[in-house]
Structure formats: C-alpha cells, structure tokens
Amino acid sequence: MFDNLQDKLDRAFKVLKGQGNITEINVAETIKEIRKALLDADVNYKTAKAFTDDVKQKALGENVLNSISPGQLLTKIMNDELTQLMGGSVTELEIGKNPTVILIAGLNGAGKTTFTGKLAKYLKEKRGKKPLLVAGDVYRPAAIDQLEVLAQQVDVPVYTNRDSNDPIAIAEEGVAEAKKNGYNVVIVDTAGRLAIDEALMNEITAVKEATQPHEILFVVDSMTGQDAVNTAKTFNDRLDFTGVVLTKLDGDTRGGAALSIKSVVNKPIKFIGTGEKMEALDVFYPDRMASRILGMGDVVSLVERAQQQFDEKEAAALQKKIRKNKFDFNDFVSQIQQIKKMGNMKDLMGMIPGVGKAIKDVDIDDDAFKPIEAIVGSMTPFERENPDAIDQKRRMRIAKGSGTDINDVNKLMKQFNDMRKMMKQFSNPAAAAKMMRGMP
Ligand code: GDP
C-alpha cells in the first residue's frame, strides 16, 4: 500500500536534510518533488496542485523551532494536510435506525458482493447488529450464489427471490422481511455493469427511491486509480451516495484514488478492503492512513487488530499452562492461527513504524507457517500434548508423514523448546527480573 509514494516523499524530504531553515528556495524544490510524487501516485492534477500550494504556504509561514528540523516540520505539515485531504476525521456509519437500510452500489468486479459479506460480519461482530442481506443482482444468478456462500461464511441470512427479475421489488421485499423478523440492518447488494450505463443508473436510482436507504455506499476498486475517481463522480452525481468503500488497497501500491476521491466528490471514504477474506475490512481513519503514507507506521490499527483476536479467558488459561510448563503443540498451532487471522503478514508488518519501507521489496510469504503446520499435523495427539516424548524415532516418522526433512523437524523442536523456556521465564516475574539483571 502506497509503497512508491512513501519512497518518493522520502526523497523529497531529503532535499531539506541538513538545511537549518525553511526558505523560499529549498521549500520550492521540495514541494516540486512532493507534487511529482503525488502525480506519480496517480493523484488528480488539480488535487495535487492545490495540496502542494497549501503545504508550501504553511511551511513558509512556520518558524522552525530549535528542537525540530525543517524536514520534521514539513513531515508534520504533510501529516496534517494528508489527513485533511482524505477527509479529516473518521466518518461513522449511520446505523441508528431500525431497520437501517444500506444500499451497495458500484461496477462489476469492484468488490460489492465481497464487501457486503465483510460489512455484515463487521456489523454483527463489532457493532452488535443483526443484519439481513438482500441479493439484488437479478442478472447474474452466480452473483446470488456468491452472496449466499459469503453469507454462510459469516453466518448471516440472505433474502433472495430467484423467480423475480425486478430488483426494486426484491429490495422492498427484503426490507419488509427484516421488519417482520427483527433484523435491524438490511444490506442490499445491487447489480453492477462493466461500465456505467443509463439503464444501471435508472435502476439503482429506483431502488434508492423505493427503499429510502440511510446509507448508500459506493464500492470502487482502488487499483483503477483515476478511473475510480471518475466513476465515483458519475455515481455521485446520480445517486448522491453517503460514503465510499475503497477495495483492493492491498494490491494498490500507488494510492491515488484514496488520496483524491474525497476532494473530488466531497464524500468520505468509510471503509477500505485489504484482502479477499471476510476479515480484511478496516474502518477508514484519515489520520492513521496519513501516518502510514509518511512511513510513520500505524501502531493504533496494529494494536486494534491484535485486540480483536485477543480473548482474555483464553489468555489466562494459556498463562497458567505456560507457568506449569504445559504449553504444548496444540497451543502452539492455535497461536499461529490467531496471528494468521490478524491478516496479511506484510500488511501487518507495514504498520510498525519504520518497517514498511524496509520490507517493501521483501517477499513475505503468507504460507510461511505451512511447513510448521504440516509437521505438527503429522504428530499424534499424544505427541502434541507431550512434546518431551518426541524422540528421534518419532521425529523421523513425523518428517516422513509431513513431507519435510528430519532437519526441519529438529529445527522446529529446538525453536519450540527455546520458546517454551523463554515463555516460562517471562511468566515468572522473579525469574524474569533475575534474567534481566543478568543482561549486559
Ligand atoms: P462485484 O462484482 O462488485 O460483486 O465484485 P466481487 O465482490 O465479486 O469481487 C471481485 C473480485 O475482487 C473477487 O475475486 C474478490 O475476491 C476480489 N476482492 C474484493 N475485495 C477485495 C480486496 O479488498 N482485496 C483483494 N485483494 N481482492 C478483493
């Protein structure tokens, strides 16, 4: 996400490195570089110009304090301005009405159906809602099937009417069904097209009028850059939507859509999709995104993702096991699964300040855990619960069973034992303190 932009902004700031003050001359050069970086990221020209003019004016108006360098000052100004550019503060979803109707709009392939599933999961698990999905794409039976599969995954019901080819009636029936059966959010997935056409716009406008939605979310593929911005503009002119959902940000290294869409259509980005899985949805926080773009990391989101996976009771039980030296391979695998649930590895590491840039070109394999899981998978239940009983003969059998090498099994056993020792030490405060004192 935003890799190239990060790199180029970094270079732009270097112009100011070693300079004692911000002057008309050195700032002009930096601003030129920043503008170039934004244009390369596929930011709309007008947006880039207005943005850099603003940054320049602010930079020249500030006195550089002794404690900070011109580079630091400019980073701060950029952080504030990027936050503003992307909408300032977070814009919450309006979900107070009962039922709340949310209409999902966008072109085919933008990620509407995927987002509908993700949103249902988010509303159910994070906001305590009881959602009902409505399959409103009457043109592609496969789209209804896809929505049903996703709905099943997130355990939320779908209203379908395969005999009807009237999306307006289906949407109305869906809302009536929700009222009747006590669902407090109705998410209507609508049909898309390959490109904008009049019939599509008329249809979705009619669905809007019939259902009077509280939120109309426009879903768009961020990888299409300026096209995404133009499509957003056309949809907004007709639909007057309430928010934007930018999908596939995990594959978009330029980030132009995220940076320009708010200033062009003047509607907030409410969510971003960062993967195909149902968990890969984030509420959009302009300030956190600005920090990420500037390579300052996004620790807040990282901690939040960790907290989502954190179950206090489970953690207490685990602590007890560690203290008693009973941590076994079942616990080990369940820890790996929790980490995996937090999302894509590279994306997670990118949230750590300073790390994003460092691992930009490193290929981080999300399947890195696979051999470990295969090895543990080849252990018998007895072995998993009694790691100390795994002798050489058992190791040979495990290697064979998991299609790995005996060295891989030995390595994993050593890592596991080292980890267990360390965890035990840290779970005992007195021992941990003793160990710390022994450190150089
Ligand atoms: P629709 O035609 O608008 O309903 O689009 P779909 O929901 O069918 O999505 C089209 C494709 O994009 C599917 O293969 C999805 O798995 C994929 N997709 C959707 N959202 C994301 C995302 O945030 N990241 C990635 N990498 N893929 C996504």
Automatic annotation (TrEMBL):
User: Recorded E.C. number(s)?
Assistant: 3.6.5.4
Q: Which GO terms describe its molecular function?
A: 7S RNA binding; GTP binding; GTPase activity
Q: Which InterPro entries match?
A: AAA+_ATPase (IPR003593), P-loop_NTPase (IPR027417), Signal_recog_part_SRP54_M_sf (IPR036891), Signal_recog_particl_SRP54_hlx (IPR013822), Signal_recog_particle_SRP54_M (IPR004125), SRP (IPR004780), SRP54 (IPR022941), SRP54_GTPase_dom (IPR000897)
One Pfam family here? SRP54_N
The subcellular localization recorded is: Cytoplasm
Q: Which UniProt keywords apply?
A: Cytoplasm, GTP-binding, Hydrolase, Nucleotide-binding, Ribonucleoprotein, RNA-binding, Signal recognition particle
Q: Which reaction does it catalyse?
A: GTP + H2O = GDP + phosphate + H(+)
- Glycosyltransferase as UniProt keyword: no
Kindly report the protein's main subcellular placement as a broad class.
Answer: cytoplasm
Q: Which residues form the SRP54-type proteins GTP-binding domain?
A: 268-281
Q: Domain description from the entry?
A: Composed of three domains: the N-terminal N domain, which is responsible for interactions with the ribosome, the central G domain, which binds GTP, and the C-terminal M domain, which binds the RNA and the signal sequence of the RNC.
What's the family?
Answer: Belongs to the GTP-binding SRP family. SRP54 subfamily.
Q: Which HAMAP family match?
A: SRP54 (MF_00306)
What is its quaternary makeup? Part of the signal recognition particle protein translocation system, which is composed of SRP and FtsY.
Q: Identify this protein by name.
A: Signal recognition particle protein
Taxonomy of origin reads:
Bacteria, Pseudomonadati, Bacteroidota, Sphingobacteriia, Sphingobacteriales
Q: What's the gene?
A: ffh
